[in-house]
């Protein structure tokens, strides 16, 4: 009897612990059911219109899924890797929500190539409007409160805001104050997504714009533009401050998380061979001259671009976007940081 009591005393705490662990695992999986995506071409998986440049034209998509499918790359983009990390299928693009209803259970992608927190595209909706789309779906009961409480949002913005600012002949002197306004609007958008009931919001820090082929072309793709990268560092510092403040103000435990894309990109570009990348700054797909871009054809449908022999050996696909191999390398680097792990808990 004493031995039986001793065994019960030992086993009861173990049973309780096992029950708590099972409950924790159950709660853990509850947070991973849906992914909602907002932003630009780094996370767009098909919303941008077919008639617009890139994404829906050859040779985009040649690595995955083997044909143009709306991704600004030869294959998968950041959204696909974050979805994979969460154990989900990549969420259906908003544009196709009525054509692929069975995939609504994984969430939805509202991102459009060329967009920003402000108006940067006359054809595609900025982030505020993307959130409006999301709010309308909630109003229509496409997603219930219980869905949102088990969801994660991924946000990628700002690169197009800065390109648009420069295209409008914005001065370098005025850049810092413009950066502050972009970060403030981003913070407003993040709070709005949270107010709709999303559990965790993951926002990408800005990638090193000075290392994109569009910036390095002037040096024959040999070196990054340090002036642009200094401005990106300012953006990321302000974004970190804003997110820290949001987390201090919220009652939830750190619902806002930053993915450090800057350091991830730089790390891969500084050690390309560790990821089997041979061309770190030179893009795989380029126009045959400055008047053409990747995917361009003339009036006779003759190709006006050229593609490298092996996209897997290039970090960049075109003048702005990584290849699938580039995104895979960035994702591998992100997995060594705490940010991705924080999404799950």
UniProtKB/TrEMBL annotation:
- Record-stated family: Belongs to the 'GDSL' lipolytic enzyme family.
User: What UniProt keywords are attached to this protein's entry?
Assistant: Hydrolase, Lipid degradation, Lipid metabolism, Signal
Q: Quick check: keyword Signal in the entry?
A: yes
**Membrane-crossing residues?**
none
Organism, by scientific name, is Phaseolus coccineus (Scarlet runner bean)
Signal peptide extent = 1-22
A GO molecular function annotation here is: hydrolase activity, acting on ester bonds
Q: Which InterPro entries does the record match to this protein?
A: GDSL, SGNH_hydro_sf, SGNH_plant_lipase-like
Lineage, top ranks: Eukaryota, Viridiplantae, Streptophyta, Embryophyta, Tracheophyta
Quote the Gene3D superfamilies the UniProt record gives: SGNH hydrolase
Q: What is this protein called?
A: GDSL esterase/lipase
Task: Please verify whether the record's keywords include Hydrolase.
Answer: yes
